[in-house]
Design a protein that fits this description.
By secondary structure, this protein is an all-alpha fold. The chain contains 17 helices and no strands. The protein has helices at 4-12, 17-37, 43-47, 50-56, 59-68, 74-88, 96-110, 113-121, 124-138, 153-177, 205-221, 225-230, 233-236, 238-255, 265-278, 288-303, 308-325. The chain starts with a helix and ends with a helix.
Length: 328
């Protein structure tokens, strides 16, 4: 599981020393956060469900007790822990049932071998069009869509540009922490391998390879400031931000039209046509996390009329599904 729900469950279901040190760090951070908001009168709002959250981390202890009783069932321990946590909760957050449903179901579907083979066999351009299609189907269904907010084109462009630069900075920092150095094909292009190299004798081939490596290093280290700037994210993010700002204004005009019919299908088709026109070189990528968030927003509105008991049952059922996904 690669989602945040899977990482959280792995943290809860791990009873080693590393888990305790991580929990200690989070506890210190939580205390410092409570000290900061103490003067704002919001402490009660944040600590109402502290006991319910703390009960979740008793899962290893519950599993150990059940194992000694001859009931070594991970799902039984999970059900007992979740039910106890829900019983102690003062109120259930409105986003929690939809979050559990979407994340656990999506993780289960992505863990299936058939879907893995299907998505693995598709080209990246087709996957991008598929994500754009799903995005266009979801945008008209959101009641409080941010695409309907008024704003100037310059403001939208600056917002998208700052967002893209922050994402690029995050990716660069992650690569730096992992010890990887991102390279661009324009910056360090390998010299072409000519057919004449095959005609050289074996005694000259190591010398030619060494000269090729020296040429590659010289090419990489001879970049000017203009080349470094042109290959940076500050320049590469201008065109995608410009396209997204244009698409947002186009989306706002489409969603505000009443002559496209009452159904959202026609509006979704027109929005997809906007992607076809603006994104011919596949630069307007959409993260799967954004799609899952939009599904959660729609599902949250659908589950809001349900009673607290039904919402608790949904949380219990899909928490067991999420636990099952950690073993796949």
């Amino acid at each position: 599981m690669s989602s945040g729900l899977g990482r959280l469950l792995k943290l809860i279901t791990t009873g080693n020393g590393v888990c305790r040190r991580i929990l200690t760090t989070y506890a210190v951070s939580a205390v410092m956060f409570l000290v900061r908001i103490r003067r704002r009168g919001q402490v009660k709002k944040w600590v109402n469900n502290t006991g319910a959250v703390a009960v979740l981390f008793l899962y290893p202890l519950v599993l150990r007790i059940l194992s000694r009783l001859g009931l070594p069932s991970r799902y039984c321990a999970c059900s007992i822990t979740v039910i106890s946590s829900l019983a102690l909760a003062k109120s259930i957050p409105s986003w929690l049932p939809s979050y559990m449903m979407v994340e656990s179901v999506s993780d289960y579907m992505l863990s299936l071998n058939a879907l893995r083979q299907l998505f693995g066999g598709l080209e990246e351009s087709r996957l991008l069009r598929l994500r754009q299609m799903i995005f266009c189907l979801l945008v008209p269904t959101i009641r409080t869509s941010p695409w309907l907010r008024r704003g100037t084109f310059i403001r939208d462009f600056i917002l998208f540009y700052c967002l893209w630069c922050l994402l690029s900075l995050y990716q660069g920092a992650k690569c730096y922490i992992k010890g990887k150095r991102p390279t661009t094909p324009q910056a360090c292009a390998k010299p072409p391998q000519f057919e004449e190299s095959r005609l050289l004798s074996t005694s000259f081939k190591p010398l030619v390879d060494k000269l090729a490596e020296l040429q590659e290093l010289t090419t990489c280290n001879r970049q000017t400031f203009a080349e470094i700037l042109m290959n940076s994210a500050l320049v590469h993010n201008i065109i995608p931000s410009f396209k997204w700002a244009l698409w947002k204004r186009f989306c706002r005009s489409v969603l505000s039209q009443s002559n496209l019919g009452r159904t959202h299908l026609m509006k979704s088709l027109v929005l997809m046509l906007g992607f076809q026109v603006l994104d011919q070189n596949r630069q307007m990528d959409i993260s799967p996390r954004v799609l899952r968030y939009m599904v959660r927003v729609n599902l949250k509105e659908f589950l809001k009329p349900l009673s607290n008991r039904l919402q608790m049952m949904l949380i219990l059922a899909f928490s067991n599904l999420a636990l099952y996904n950690t073993t796949m």
